[in-house]
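Researcher: I'm comparing several assemblies side by side, and this is the next one on my list. It has 597 residues spread over two chains. Same procedure as the others: predict the full complex and return the structure.
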Amino acid sequence: MSKILALSLLTLASATFVFAGSVTAPEIDAASGVGALTLLSGAVLVLRSRRRKQ
Amino acid sequence: VGLAGRVAAVAALIGAEFVCATIAFDGDDLRGKAGHITALLARFGSPVSRSLVVFCALLAAFTWLLRKTEVAEFSGSAASISPRWPPLVVHLFAVAGFVLIGRSLYAAGQSTAAPDLLTLFLLAFASAAVVSAALAVLPWHRWKRALFLPGSLWLWSAAASILVAVTTDFARGMWLSATAFTFRLVRLLLLPFVPLTVLDPAHLRLGTRRFTVIISPECSGLEGVSLLLLFVGLWLILFRKECRFPQALLLLPVGAAIQFLLNAVRIAVLLLIGNSGARQIAAGGFHSQAGWIFFILVALGLCAAAGRIPWFTGSPAKSLSSPAVPDHAESPWTASYLLPFLSILAAGMLSHAWSGGFEWLYPLRVVAPLAVFWFYRRDYRQLFSQPRPNMLFPVAAGFLVFAIWIAFDSLSGAPAHAAIPLPLERAWTPLRLFWISFRVFSAVVTVPLAEELAFRGFLIRRLRARDFHLLPPVSYSWAGLLISSAAFGLLHGSRWPAGVCAGLIYAILFVRRGRLADPVIAHAVTNACLAAAVLFLGYWQYW
């Protein structure tokens, strides 16, 4: 979890600071960054969860 | 609270204040004002603050990951020290001084008396705010020891942040040639579908009579590629024990190539959508959402490949899909707690991507979590099978959050009244009622359930242990409460201060009696009040 949080925060920081304010409709829109990276980190957590024993 | 929790609290406080300052004060307003120091702040303020943020993030991440033993020892010894109030009071005064001087210095279109003196005071108040916040959680002699913990990592972090700045500049230099290559790629992709009547390589403009696009350097594909390289690179470093090297390194060029190609596909699809007549969808929703959608798909695909394909993991036994339960895997309950919320986020991205001026596909955000609830219905029956909750506290808390929400909105200076969106007003009445009923159902049923499962049910306890479902809710930590509330607030965009307060109130409700139904009811009451304010009083800004 801590690693995934660090991964997401660093990616978010990069998305916000490196790409912010370049054009109005860029490829990676920093304004949608929080939602998109929350989705990504949540999906990674689900992907890393183990199967429940039947 | 140990060292990590204290540093996180200071970082969250200063980070939130920093974000507020960047929103409230625009560096462009300083340009043209007299004073040498003010001119320096106008020119270098933004890049220096960006580099400082990158540096601090790297230093904290490196220290946390590479000095675990030292941090744990120090953290244990710091846990007995109580937070101190006097520095916090100083912090509040410093922030107030910063805001007052900032308002005068950054006043747009006005000349300021003694700007250099004001700039120096502004910097002094900012420094005092940072130092006092730090001293509130840990005394100076402890900080002195803590500052020695990273050792050589100070240098490594500085070097890495300089490298990030230089690489960014270098990548910007590559943009023009990358844009030309993307232009050719898009033309190639479109050849079988539409005759391109507009083709201007000099200005990177291509399209048909009905719709044309200009490929700007920012749309060359390098943004997505660099973000993906960063994500996969960090993944390979953080989860190196789970990967097989050098095979796993192949994920970097493969991911970059797929991401670059998908950016060309994005532009080609955008042109086809625009050419079909849906200009608003092409230039509005699709343009801003498709980049993230492709990035998430590629990143997830690479994570799945790195964790599940034996050639990358080393042996089949390491695969996460194995029921042999590897010790680094997440709790088996993760999916049932997180997927409803994730499905809402994903459906929101898709519905935004296919929307022009108005989000007509909002019902997708209802259908997606309902499908997840149905799939995991046995889990939820177990989760919500507790005795009937006492409704008084949750309902009162719901009303309180509603009042806070309205109060913050009034204080922020947002327009007091927003009209119904024009496309909805002009829509055929049954269609309008259909859309509104889905919107209300989402606000009162699916969103409270999904968000409470994710932020309160999952995040608060997951910050304490991987097998969060085994922990009773009453064994919470204040750091968990604050982090989950801050995350909840951040997802509410410009209303984040109200979101953080709401998150805290729902979190306290959850840990008070350990019943997830309590915050769900409170959240539903808040959203029902907001829906009533929208529908009966016409405050459409809340939707």
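Model: For your comparison table: Chain B is about 70% helix and 0% strand.
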